[in-house]
């Protein structure tokens, strides 16, 4: 049996990584999983309710660093005979290794949160992440030129752009919105500006044909879930930087080793 403690570590899309890892290894090893039922995943997704009070048999607590000491096959065999408690964070350093099943199977939005976009044009979602990125890593705050160059890939008359951000004062967001307006592009702001809930932005983003993405796991999960075969655009400068730092998540992204999320363009 495998149980996760403190799934609420980090923000929403970090928690999706924790939950995805839990479900992936449970499926791969055919062992029962247990998760807190009061995290927002149970509110927004069709996640099964588990009995969090169930007792484990002399469990071992493991972090991501502990898990990475195992070879994949060894770890999956180990949890068949040993109950474990997972301690987040369980992030990108595990994602490529253990994501064998389509995450859409584990993380399907409930019907009341699903948004159907208009299909008269090519729908391109643009994500902007300022807020905490200014403190976490200023290089993750992508410049307006990245967005402009990405926008210019598309036929103005055949494309509708959706802008998503939780930082409406962010410079790149304001410059991009002005550029779209001044050049008569079709664009809309994400529904969270009206509905006051991020999940509507997430739902819209997940249904776009293309995502002009950021280093945020929010936009990356928007690319993984929802509509199939999206075109995913990322910043070449950011990926160069992270590959240079030998970040396994971004090295995997550049090499397109994950069949459920592939980078189509580096701009």
Shape: globular
Task: Give helix and strand order, one letter per element, not per position.
Answer: EHEHEHHEHEHHEHEHHEHEHHE
Helix content: 25-40%
CATH class of the largest domain: Alpha Beta
The largest pleated sheet is described as: 6 strands, parallel
Assembly state here?
single chain
Number of DSSP helical runs: 13
Distance between the termini: 44 Å
Q: Detail the poorly predicted runs.
A: none
Radius of gyration: 19 Å
SS class:
alpha/beta
Structural write-up:
- This protein has two domains: 2-108; 114-266, Rossmann fold (3-Layer(aba) Sandwich), CATH 3.40.50.
- Helices cover 39% and strands 14% of the residues.
- The strands form two sheets. A six-stranded parallel sheet has the order 7-6-5-8-9-10, with helices on both faces.
- With 267 residues, the chain is of the alpha/beta class.
- Strand 1, helix 1 (12-29) and strand 2 form a beta-alpha-beta unit.
- It contains 13 helices and ten strands.
Keyword list:
13 helices, 14% strand, alpha/beta, Rossmann fold, 267 residues, 2 domains, four-stranded parallel beta sheet, six-stranded parallel beta sheet
Topology:
Elements: E1 2-4, H1 12-29, E2 33-34, H2 40-44, E3 60-62, H3 64-67, H4 72-81, E4 84-86, H5 92-98, E5 122-128, H6 133-136, H7 144-151, E6 159-165, H8 171-182, E7 186-189, H9 192-195, H10 198-206, E8 210-212, H11 217-224, E9 231-234, H12 236-244, H13 248-254, E10 265-266
Parallel strand pairs: 1-2, 1-4, 3-4, 5-6, 5-8, 6-7, 8-9, 9-10
Short description:
The protein is α/β, with parallel strands linked by helices and 267 residues long.
